[in-house]
Design brief:
The protein is of the alpha+beta class. It contains three helices and six strands. Strands 3-4-5-1-2-6 form a six-stranded antiparallel β-sheet. 21% of the residues are buried.
């Protein structure tokens, strides 16, 4: 019985190691509410596979937090001038060791956490996934 369990674990580990980045099945969604309009972004394994790899212990991040914030502000445009930067987080893509993305959080009123908000995904290649209508 122990041999079967050990073999099963070894097969699973091998299969995970052999899977390509394109096979990683995940989906990260962000949400935005601006002037009564609900939007979302979707970032998935297929998209992440084409983005640059980054090893935080070996090299500088290819996209600075300030540049990521500028990209978000540029993408949102005039509709979001009333939002204030609240946080920016660097997140690892689920299931991929060397793929990362930013989540830039903007709030209308950071004190009360009420009103409009934008949680925007920014990829390390500088791409901001397109906004879709939230349904």
């Amino acid at each position: 019985m122990k041999k079967m369990v050990s073999c099963g674990i070894a097969i699973v580990i091998t299969a995970c190691c052999l899977a390509s980045a394109q096979d990683v099945d995940f989906e990260v969604e962000s949400s935005l509410l601006i002037k009564g309009k609900a939007l979302k972004q979707v970032f998935d394994g297929k998209s992440a596979a084409s983005h640059p790899s980054w090893s935080p212990m070996k090299e500088k991040c290819p996209l600075s937090p300030s540049k990521a914030t500028q990209l978000v502000i540029g993408k949102l445009g005039k509709a979001a001038t009333h939002l204030k930067l609240c946080a920016i987080n660097l997140e690892r893509v689920p299931g991929m060791q060397d793929k990362w993305y930013y989540i830039v959080n903007l709030l209308e009123d950071p004190e009360s956490m009420e009103g409009d908000y934008a949680n925007v995904i920014v990829c390390l290649n500088g791409k901001v996934p397109k906004f879709q209508k939230e349904e």
